[in-house]
Amino acid sequence: MTVLTVLNLKKYFPLQKSFIEQLITRKKLTVKAVDNISFKISEGEVFSLVGESGCGKTTTGRLIVRLEKPDSGRIVFEGQDITFANEKLLRPLRRKMQIIFQDPYASLNPRMTVGDAIAEPLVIHGIMSKKEAKEEALKMLESVGLTPSVTFYKAFPHQLSGGQRQRVVIARAMILKPKFIVADEPVSMIDVSLRASILKLLMKFKNIYNLTMLFITHDLAVARLISNTIAVMYLGKIVEMAPVDELVENPLHPYTKALLSSVPTIVPQMKREKVVLKGDVPSPINPPSGCRLHPRCPLAMGKCVKEEPQLKYVGNGHYVACHLV
Amino acid sequence: MTLLEIRNLKVYYYTRRGVVKAVDDVSISLDRGEMVGLVGESGSGKSTLGLSIIRVLPHQAKVVSGSIVFEGIDLLKLSEKEMRKIRGKEISMVFQDPLTSLDPLQKIGDQLIETVLEHERNLSRKEACEIAKKTLQDVGIPSERMDNYPHQLSGGQRQRVMIALATILKPKLIIADEPTTALDVIVQDRIMDLLASLKKELKVTVLLITHDLALAAEKSDKIAVMYAGHLYEYGASKDIVSKPLHPYTQGLIDSIPDVFVKKEIREIKGHPPDLVNPPKGCRFHPRCPLRMDVCSVKEPPIVNVDGRLVRCWLYAQ
Amino acid sequence: MNLVNVVMDKLRMRGLLENANALFKAGLIIVVGIIVLSILAPILTPYSPIVGTGDSLEPPSLKHPMGTNNLGYDMFSRILYGARTVLTVVIAATLLSMSIGVPLGLISGYYGGKVDRALSIVMDSMYAFPSLILALAIAAVLGASLINAIIAIAVVYVPTYFRMVRGQALSIKSLLYVEAARALGASDFRIISKYVFPNLLPTVLVVFSMNIADAILTEAGLSFLGFSVPPPTPDWGADLRAGHSYVLAGYWWLVAFPGLMIMLLATGFALIGEGLSDILNPRREVVR
Asked: Which end of chain C has fewer CB atoms surrounding its CB within 10 Å, N or C?
C-alpha cells in the first residue's frame, strides 16, 4: 500500500536582488531547490534521499510535512492530496506524520522541560488529559533509554547531551504512534560512537510501529544500513533510484558512481570503477542546461548539453536519468 | 626516520567547572614522509594534541608537562619569537573551516605572497608572486584566481587555498585538523588525494586529525586511536582495520556503518567520559565488553605487539 | 536615560562591572532598601510630609535630619513619603506600559503583515519623541494628578516594550524549535504563549528594570515642571521644583536630598538591570 506519492514536485525560492540588480535586470532570480521530482513510498518502507549539500533533499522533506508550500506538483499522503491544503486540514494529519530534525540542540524549546516537550503532541491534539499525557511521556522516556524517567522528565534540554536530546526528539515524534516519519539527517550532529544507538533506536521504533520512513542523509553508509530504497539527488533532481543493494552493487549514473568511489570505507578494495567529477557543484540559481551534471561529467556527450534526461526504468526496481543508459 | 617525537605530553584546560585533562600523558612519534591519522571522537584530545605541537592553544589551556621534539629541538622550550619562525615554514596547519581561517578582506594571492615574504625576507615581491602562482597551480587552482577574495571561491577551492598556504614554504610537517569535515564527500575525496600527492612530492609528514575512522583508514599510512586524553592504539592502518587489538578500536569499527559491508552495527555501551573526573584505571573500562578486574584499578601500560602499540591489559602482563 | 548611562559608563571604565552578581546585589540592596524605608516611614519620622512644623528653612539638624523647607515641612519626612509616590507612579506606569506593549509586540512580531507595518509606524513615531517631552504633552492635556502621571509615563514607554518584544518575537519565530512545534500541529496561540513568550521573558525582565530607571527620571522631570502629582503630595521632583529658587540663597538641603534620592533609586534599578543582563548572558570563561 502506498503511503506517500510525490509527483512533479517543484519549489523555487526567490532571491533578493541587490539594488543595482533590481534596476538593471527584469529576470526573477530563483534558487531551483526542488525541480520536478517524483517518487512513491510504500507502507513499512524506508526510503532514503541521498545527496550532497544543496541538492534539495532537506527542502523535499520540509515540503512533504508541509513546513513549506510547494510551487507545483502533487503530494498525496494516504490517499489525501495535501499539496496546497491549509493548516486546518493539515492539523489532524500531523498526528500521522512527524519530522525529526538534524540539530538536537535547536529543535527543543529551551524553556520547556524534556518531559513536557515529549507530552506536547498529546496535549496539542487533545488526545488525553495532562495527567495521562505525563504518564505516557514517562513511558516514552523509558522506551528511549532515558532512565530514571522521573528525573529526566524534569530536566531541561541544556542539561542533556546531544545524544540524549536526540532521543528526546525521537520520543516526542513517536508518542503519537505516527504512520510516517521524515528523518532529516538525524545523526549528522551526533558523535560517531553514539550514532549507532540512535540509529538502532529508530530501527526499533520502525519495527514496533511498522513505520514508513523518508530518511534524508548525505552519508551513503548510513543510507545503506537502514534503507530499502535509495534515491540520489543532484541539483534539485533525482538522478537515480533503486533498491539499496541494487544501487550500491550496480550503480548506473555517473554521479552515483562518483559518490560511491569517493565515500570513505574500510574496505577500499570493494570500490568499483573510479569516476572523477571535475569542478564543483554549480549554483542552483543557474543550473546547467540539459543534464545538470554535464559540465563535470567525464562521459558527457553532445546530447547531454541540450536535452534533459528523464528517469527511465531499467528493471529490478531501478530507475536512472542518463542518456548513456 | 623520526621527525617528531612527543613524550608524556599533558595538556590541561583550566575552566570554571574544573581541570579538564584533555591530553593526559601521550607519547607518539611520527616518521618522515608518512600520513598518520589521529582518530578520536570529540573530547578525545586529538585537536588539543595537534594544537599543542604548533603551540596555538586557547588561553585556558596549559602544557603541564612533557616534550615535543621536532628535529632535535623541544618546541615547548622555544620562545614565541622562535616558534613564529617555525610556524608556516617548518610546521604548518590546515584548519577545518576555510571560511573563517582565511582573511576575508585579503585577496588569496596576497595572503600567499605575504606568507612567503614573512619567512623569506630576501625575496622580492615579484619572486614571491611567482612562487604563489605555482603553488596555486599545484593545488589545482588556476593562477588567474590570484586576485579573488575567499568568498568568491567554493568551499573546496578555499580548502585548496588553505593547503596552498600550508605547503608554499615546503614544510616538513603539516597538521590537518578535520580538513574535510565541512566538505561534501566528492570534494573531500579530491582534497585528500591532493594531500596524498603533495605528501609524496614534498616528502611531508601529515598528521591528519579526524573523527572519521574510515577516512583515516583509507588515506593514511598509520592510525593512532585516542580516547579520553590517552593514546590507545597506534599502528599501520591496514592492520588496525583488519585486526584491531584494542576493544575501543573494535567497538568503533563495529559501530560505524560502511557502504560496502553489509553488517549489523553494534553500539558502544555507556557514554563518553567526564574529562574532569575520568574513570580510574583504564579510561575505557566502564564501556569495555572485555574488561577485567585490573582494568578498573590500574592504568594499562603501552605494549608493543608485532610493531603495533596498544595500551590494554589484554596484552600486558 | 542619559544621566544613568553616564554614571554606568564611568563605573565601567573603572572596571567595576566585572562580577555580575555583585552588580545585581548592589542594585537590589539599594532598591529594596528604599522600598523598606518608605514603608517604615511612619515609624522613622514623627512628622507629616504635608503639615508645617513651624520651623521653616531650617538646615539639617538632629530634630530635622534633612532640614525643613519654606513651608516648614520636614524634608526627611517628605523624602520618605515621597519615595512612596515615586515608586507607585513609576511601577504602576511601567506595568501598564508592559501590559500594552508586550502583547502588541508579540502579535506584531509573530504575524507580521499589514498589522505589523501599521503598528510599527505608530510606535516608531512615538519612540522618536524624547520621553520627557512626550510625557509632558500627554500630562498637559490630561491635567496634573497621580492617575494622569501614571498614564502619561505608561504611554511614553509602550514603544520601548513593543519594539523589543517585536524584535525578539521576529527572531524567535524562525528558530527550529518553533518550527518543530508547528510540525507537531501546535496552534499559533500555543506557539506564542509556550514557545515564543517564555523565551523572550529574560530580555523583558532586563528592559523592565532599565526602564524603571528611565521612568524615575521622567517622573522627576514631569513633577519638576509641575505636571505630575499636585502639591502638597510629597514627591522628589516637586521638592526640586519648590526648592530650586532657594539654592542660590544657600538653602542647599532643599534640592540636594531629593536630587540624590532620584539618582540613587534610578541607579539602583539600572544596576539590577545590568546585573540581570550579565546573569542571563554570561560572558566567556575567565582564565584561572
From this structure: C
Report the residue from A95, A98, A108 with minimal CB separation from C177. Answer: A108
> Is residue B201 classed exposed, middle or buried when 0-12, 13-18 and 19+ CB atoms within 10 A define those classes?
exposed
Distance of residue C284 Cα from the nearest chain B Cα, in angstroms: 10
CB A125 within 8 A of CB C185: yes
The per-residue pLDDT for C20 is 56
**Structural domain of C132:** 18-46+70-280
Average pLDDT, integer, range C22-45: 89
| B18, closest residue in chain C (CA to CA) | C288
How buried is residue A274: exposed, middle or buried, by Cβ count under 10 Å (0-12/13-18/19+)? exposed
C181 touches chain A (CB under 8 A): yes
Q: Is there a contact between A121 and C199 if contact means CB atoms under 8 Å apart?
A: no
Model pLDDT, residue C284? 46
Residue C11 has pLDDT above 80, yes or no: no
**Which three cell numbers mark A263?**
565515500
A76 has a pLDDT exceeding 80: yes
Q: What is the CATH number of the domain that holds C163?
A: 1.10.3720.10
Q: Given an 8 Å threshold on Cβ–Cβ distance, is A266 in contact with B217?
A: yes
Say what percent of chain A tops pLDDT 70.
97
Residue C9 is predicted with a pLDDT of 55
Count of the separate structural domains present in chain C: 1
- For chain C, the chains sharing at least 3 beta-carbon pairs closer than 8 angstroms are A, B
- Cα torsion B240, B243, B249, B252: sign: positive
Q: What is the mean pLDDT of residues C129-157?
A: 90
pLDDT value of position C17: 45
Nearest CA-CA partner of C236 in C264, C199, C277 = C264
Predicted confidence at residue C44, as pLDDT, reads 85
Phi and psi, residue B199, nearest 5°: -60, -45
Nearest to B159 by CA among B104, B220, B94, B110: B94
**Residue at grid coordinates 504633552:** C137
Listed ranges A118-122, C18-22, C204-208; the one with the highest mean pLDDT: A118-122
Average pLDDT over residues C39-55: 83
Coil, strand or helix: which one is A61? helix
Of B41, B215, B219, the CB nearest to A191: B41
- The answer to whether ipTM exceeds 0.90 is no
Residue B261: what pLDDT?
A: 85
Class of domain B2-90+171-311: alpha beta
Mean pLDDT of chain C: 86
Taking an 8 Å cut-off on Cβ atoms, the answer to whether A280 and B259 are in contact is no
Chain A residue with Cα closest to B42: A191
Residue with the three cell numbers 582494568: B295
Between C177, C182, C183, which is nearest A109 by CB?
A: C177
pLDDT value, residue C287: 36
- What mean pLDDT comes out for the span C221-243? 88
Give the residue from chain A lying closest to B40, CA to CA.
A192
Residue located via cell numbers 519620622: C45
What distance in Å separates the CA atoms of residue A197 and residue A194, rounded to the nearest whole number? 6
C185-189, Cβ contacts within 8 angstroms, sequence gap of 24 or more: C185/A90, C185/A91, C185/A94, C185/A95, C185/A121, C185/A124, C185/A125, C186/A120, C186/A124, C187/A124, C188/C110, C188/C111
pLDDT at B110: 92
Identify from A111, A113, A174 which residue to disrupt to test chain C contact, counting C C-beta atoms within 10 A and taking the largest count: A111
Query: Which CATH number describes the domain made up of A2-96+178-320?
Result: 3.40.50.300
**Signed CA dihedral, B194, B196, B201, B204: sign only:** positive
Top residue of C184, C187, C196 to mutate, by most chain A CBs within 10 Å, is: C184
- The whole-angstrom separation of Cα A20 and Cα C137 is 44
Residue C103 Cα, gap to closest chain A Cα (Å): 19
Residue B72: strand, helix, or coil: coil
Alpha-carbon Rg for chain B, nearest whole angstrom, is 20
